[in-house]
Amino acid sequence: METVLLDDECRPIDKPGVPGEICGRGPHVMLMYFKDPDKTDEAMKGGWFHSGDIGVYDEDRYITVVDRKKDMIKTGGENVSTREVEEVIYKDPRVSEVAVVGLPYPRWIEAVTAIVVPKPDQRIDEREIIDLCKKELAGFKVPKAVIVVDTLPKTPTGKILKRDLRKMYQDYFRDKP
């Protein structure tokens, strides 16, 4: 079995810390999606099975998963791992849950946006979360907005539905410069 990180043009990534999609090929990789040739073509692009997971190599060429490809945010020409931003926000002890999503933004394509559920009887101010992120993240990874809500939409198994959040707040930055 071979495993590699590939960029969006199916070129191998060799530098540590540069994110790429985790892809594999070998005798144990699936052959096709049942009765879905289009999905098969997408998943098997370039002769590699595309997992949908984004990873980075460390100095020893071990791969660390950093996010799902569909959850990566493209903002101002940079890629942002939602998981990285969420991990910083979870350092605030008042945060019960957080989901970071990219919302349409005229200037940057997508704006990093944190949707936060505070713990019971706790108040969270947008500025405090942004200041926390500024201390620990590169500027382009800092949320442009923090939306405080009572609950996040979830699947029956408890997984946060980021696609629903992106749809619910798709017009949030509509009138921003």
UniProtKB/TrEMBL annotation:
Keyword hit for Lipid metabolism: yes
Keyword annotations from UniProtKB, A to Z: Fatty acid metabolism, Ligase, Lipid metabolism
UniProt-listed Gene3D superfamilies: 3.30.300.30, N-terminal domain of ligase-like
Source superkingdom: Bacteria
Pfam families, sorted: AMP-binding_C
Residues annotated as domain AMP-binding enzyme C-terminal: 84-159
Family: Belongs to the ATP-dependent AMP-binding enzyme family.
GO molecular function annotation: ligase activity
InterPro entries documented for this protein: AMP-bd_C, AMP-bd_C_sf, ANL_N_sf
Name of the protein described by the UniProt record: AMP-binding enzyme C-terminal domain-containing protein
GO terms classed as biological process: fatty acid metabolic process
Secreted recorded as keyword: no
